[in-house]
Design brief:
The chain has about 325 residues and is mainly beta. The protein has one domain: Porin. It has a 16-stranded antiparallel β-barrel. Strand 15 and strand 16 form a beta hairpin. It is globular and about 60 Å long. About 30% of the residues are buried.
């Protein structure tokens, strides 16, 4: 009964009317990401505790192969001071599954880098490449469809507004995406995604490509992705690209080690001040299924002349249901 009351209270905050029976049969979503960090050298004064992001929501299976899901995203924003947080509706969607089909509509998760993020597996430590470097948004308003042809091949498509879940516009064109995923060998996954975002008159349409290959077994994983973004910001020839490679090794039921390296490149160095190589290595400690801690070291090597390497140490944490 206590759990039911808590769930109802959260749903009231989300603005969702539900009955006690629905709440008891549904699933609460709670994910909180935080960290303590400190810099070295020129970043010696950069230190402190940080609450990165909180996800609070609920999902419910309904008759007729339907599922509803609503999630609030409470995080930082550059538009307000660090003492404030801004809450967004991250997901407000309904999905229908029938046979090999899955259809979703509303404020839905996008398909651009969803698989890469899940394969990386340490979202509370750092976003996946395309999310981290603003190649696209993880959610948007629109519709998506996926069809599983067999155990080895799946295709998905999406049509959304194209501005992400923090700026849900109703004009200025749409964004389209098509993805293909193949399980070619036991444990080996390949994925290819292409997308186009329509621009307003006077600007240029932007295009996105994501290619991914990953191998995973019970204890080890390694993934590599190549990403390209043409006409970013709807600006002609403002092209970006980059690689991300990441791997993890499970030592036992409680401890895993992982590493990641990213390289961000801009065409003709138009974004040289933000180009460079990022490296990360860390250890994840699972205290239980609700709490994970991850000490990790990070190095940013900028491409621009005269800029020094940056070194940071983090203790990242996640708790949730």
């Amino acid at each position: 009964m206590k759990r039911i009351k808590i769930l109802i209270a959260l749903l009231v905050l989300l603005g969702l009317p539900v009955s006690a029976q629905q709440t008891a049969d549904g699933q609460m979503i709670v994910n909180v990401f935080g960290n303590f960090h400190t810099g070295f050298g020129q970043l010696n004064d950069v230190r402190g505790f940080e609450l990165d992001r909180s996800y609070i929501g609920y999902q419910q299976n309904l008759p007729g192969n339907l599922e509803i899901k609503a999630v609030m995203d409470i995080g930082q924003s550059k538009s307000v001071s660090d003492y404030h947080r801004i809450a967004y509706i991250k997901n407000a969607q309904i999905s229908w599954k029938n046979g090999n089909w899955k259809l979703s509509g509303g404020l839905i998760s996008t398909i651009q880098f969803n698989m890469q993020e899940k394969f990386w597996g340490y979202r509370y430590v750092m976003k996946s490449f395309q999310d981290e470097y603003k190649f696209g948004s993880s959610a948007d308003l629109g519709i998506s469809a996926a069809y599983q042809f067999n155990d080895n091949f799946m295709m998905d498509a999406i049509i959304v507004n194209g501005e992400g879940y923090k700026k849900v516009q109703v004009e200025d064109g749409l964004a389209y995406g098509l993805g293909m995923t193949a399980q070619v060998l036991d444990g080996l996954t390949l994925r290819l995604y292409g997308g186009m975002n329509e621009a307003t008159p006077g600007l240029d349409d932007s295009y996105n490509l994501a290619a991914f290959a990953g191998y995973k077994d019970n204890n080890f994983s390694i993934g590599v992705e190549y990403n390209a973004y043409w006409n970013s910001g709807y600006t002609k020839d403002a092209n970006q690209s980059g690689f991300s490679v990441y791997s993890s090794q499970k030592l036992n039921d409680k401890v895993s080690i992982y590493a990641r390296a990213d390289q961000l490149i801009s065409k003709d160095d138009w974004n040289k001040a933000n180009d460079g190589m990022f490296s990360l290595v860390g250890v994840e400690i699972k205290l239980n299924k609700y709490i994970q801690l991850s000490p990790n070291l990070r190095v940013w090597t900028p491409k621009a002349d005269g800029m020094k390497d940056e070194y940071m140490a983090y203790i990242s944490c996640r708790f949730g249901l």
